[in-house]
Amino acid sequence: MGKIETVKKPNPNTLERDTSLSNMNLRQIITLREGEWDKPWTSSEVIKKMLEKEGLPMIKELGRSPLPTEYGDWTYITFGDYTNGQHHEMLVYGDESKGSTGDGEDILTRIHSSCRTNEVYHAINCECRKELHEAMTLVQKEDRGIILYLEQEGRGMGMAGKMAQLDNMFGWTEDGQIEQKRDPETEERIDTDRAYKDAGYPSESRDFTVAGEMLHHIGVKSVRLLTNNPRKIAGVTSAGIEVTPVEIHITPENEIIASDLRSKAKNLGHYIGQEHLVVKGTIVENTIFEKKTEAIL
Ligand SMILES: [Zn+2]
Questions:
Q1: Ligand 1 centroid distance, CA of 128 (Å)
Q2: I want to staple 91 with a disulfide (CB 3.0 to 4.6 A). Which of 138, 147, 183, 202 is the partner?
Q3: Do the domain assignments include residue 146?
């Protein structure tokens, strides 16, 4: 056992500050909050531009601690996001203060967006939890790497948007089962992308420049990014960090997820090879648990 640091540092969050809300009346606060719930990306974009104009950062480190997990020992760092008041998290494998990222070059990295429905409730329409743990396993094997966990629920549409998407995508049958809805004309499954569009939302509202700033904050210079999403690559590159995309292999559990993959490739420009978009075996109608297919996420 090595020596463990026990000296307490002053907690910046307990320092005195002006907590008065005298410059805002209650109506303004309610309007601001409702705007954040309905279309969280709208005010974020405005504030981001204001910060950029002043040359100010989007984020502030809120604190860090060691975090022992099933996937090894990490440095757990949280950041406040000035653009939307949310917080984001970063797991750096090993003791970051002792230089566990080495020279900051070529770091295996995954940018993950929060997905409460799958991560907490194990909903079966996506594989976010599996992807997160697969990435943590890969980093652990390599003994070096970073996981970014961004609080951008529902592709950045927020919980209100996610509710509208799920309600457009699923419905109850007469005998009390949940089924994925289908287009009445084409009989095609209503995938996530279509469900958002039908609810009046864009396909994607996440902003990954915050990920670039978080990596820059700890001195990362180049990454091997576990992704096929061009927006993630652009976000990290915007912070002056070099990106080499790396494919992550997972096997979707059902046809809902496979149909979402096809939609991501078609509508969002994700790099997913044709061979990974074809469902193997016979599709059984009226059941959401269908044949497995292989894919790259
Ligand atoms: Zn998910």
A1: 4
A2: 147
A3: yes
Q: Does the pLDDT at position 104 exceed 70?
A: yes
- Our count of domains for the chain comes to 1
Q: Which residues surround ligand 1, an ion (CB under 5 A)?
A: 115, 118, 126, 128
- Rounded to two decimals, the pTM is 0.82
Distance 24 CA to ligand 1 centre (A): 36
Q: How far is the CA of 76 from the centre of ligand 1 (A)?
A: 22
Q: How many angstroms separate the Cα of 123 from the Cα of each of 83, 127, 213, 248, 257?
A: 29, 9, 31, 21, 11
Residue entry with tokens 């094997």? 141
Q: pLDDT, tens digit, for every residue of 42-54?
A: 878 889 999 999 9
Query: Which residues neighbour 55 within 8 Å (Cβ) at sequence distance 6 or greater?
Result: none
Q: Which residues on neighbouring strands pair with residue 225, listed in sequence order?
A: 109, 245
Asked, for residue 10, whether it belongs to a domain, the answer is no
Could you tell me whether strands 170-172 and 72-81 are parallel, antiparallel, or unpaired per DSSP bridges?
A: unpaired
